[in-house]
Amino acid sequence: MNKNKTLLPRQLGDAHIRLLRIFKTVVESGGFAAAEVDLNISRPAISIAIGELESLLKMKLCLRGRSGFSVTAQGEQVYQSALQLLGSLENFRAQMNAINTDLVGELNIGITDNLVTIEQMRITRALSALKHRAPQVQINISMLPPNDIETAILHGHLHIGVVPEFRTLPGLKYLPLYKEQSLLYCSEQHPLFKQDLHKISDDALANYDAVVPSYPQSADIKQQQKTLNATATSTDREGIAFLILTGRFIGFLPTHFAKRWTAQDKMRAIEYHQRKFTTNFSVITSKSARSNLILEAYLAELQKT
């Protein structure tokens, strides 16, 4: 048997790249069903594409059935190779952008949840200015936890991110963006709602269930939450709001995010003079990233706002 058989053609075309992109999305989504939304194609179409790729490569890439979805050992290797290939294509595109004075290409942004309600709207205004200046630029936004954004930028999957500045990593550059204040809230169904919220002791608060973040926090913020009776956690601020609105939990929320409920008197802050903290948000980029005119243009617009 010839061990040096060629599985792929000498020249990879758009069709081959498309199959690899579909496979990459399926792996990262954790299955065919979850990948439908990201790919905007039907599950049967995804199944056909994966089948074509498996036939082309003559190997089983993933298992799907009643037991769920999983990637084979060969599939994992193909996934890692696909990441390298697609990353190289993006690097080539970025290099061409640096050569070409016309801003054409993609800007891939990672943003922490629930920043859209911040009144300064620096991110939004900078995106608007960039799109006005370079209408051909494609903007791709991913809403991700801070750790995932940092990792994606360091690996070259994102160009820029917006994260709370709880730590600084040596491979990233930081541009201060926002200061966000958070207060401790209860909803209108909660027993505390009709009490004098200016005078609530730590001992009194300990009698009530609280929801706290499961994502990383600074030491100061952890200290604020240490006195709470934490019986629930959430990976993001929207999840915290859900539990506060049940009337069974208290929890910290950014003031700009809670404003929609406080304006209708459906939430109130508990001892807002004492129980509060400030979170600094920064724009992050990779120190080792190649020159990218689109990224530089967006950073310039951010600094103008």
Structure description:
- The protein has 305 residues and is an alpha/beta fold.
- It contains 11 helices and 11 strands.
- It folds into 3 domains: 14-89, Arc Repressor Mutant, subunit A, CATH 1.10.10; 98-171 and 284-304, Periplasmic binding protein-like II (D-Maltodextrin-Binding Protein, domain 2, 3-Layer(aba) Sandwich), CATH 3.40.190; 179-280, D-Maltodextrin-Binding Protein, domain 2 (3-Layer(aba) Sandwich).
- Helices cover 42% and strands 23% of the residues.
- The strands form 3 sheets. Strands 3, 4, 5, 6, 9, 10 and 11 form a 7-stranded mixed sheet that branches. A two-stranded antiparallel ribbon has the order 1-2. A two-stranded parallel sheet has the order 7-8.
- Strand 7 (209-213), helix 8 (219-225) and strand 8 (229-234) form a beta-alpha-beta unit.
- The chain is globular.
- The model has no long low-confidence stretch (mean pLDDT 87).
Low-confidence stretches: none
- The tally of helices reads 11
Give the name of the CATH architecture of the largest domain. Answer: 3-Layer(aba) Sandwich
Q: What count of structural domains?
A: 3
Overall geometry: globular
Q: Tell me the CATH topology of the largest domain.
A: D-Maltodextrin-Binding Protein, domain 2
The top-level CATH class of the largest domain is Alpha Beta
Task: Report Rg.
Answer: 24 Å
Share of β-strand residues: 15-25%
State the helicity in percent bands: 40-55%
Look at the helices and sheets and give the structural class.
Answer: alpha/beta
Roughly how many Å apart are the termini? 65 Å
Write the layout of secondary structure elements.
Elements: H1 14-29, H2 32-39, H3 43-57, E1 62-65, E2 68-71, H4 73-99, E3 106-111, H5 122-133, E4 138-143, H6 146-154, E5 160-164, E6 172-187, H7 202-205, E7 209-213, H8 219-225, E8 229-234, H9 237-245, E9 251-254, H10 255-262, E10 267-269, E11 276-286, H11 293-304
Parallel strand pairs: 3-4, 3-5, 7-8
Antiparallel strand pairs: 1-2, 5-11, 6-9, 6-10, 6-11
Helix pairs in contact: 1-2, 1-3, 1-4, 5-11
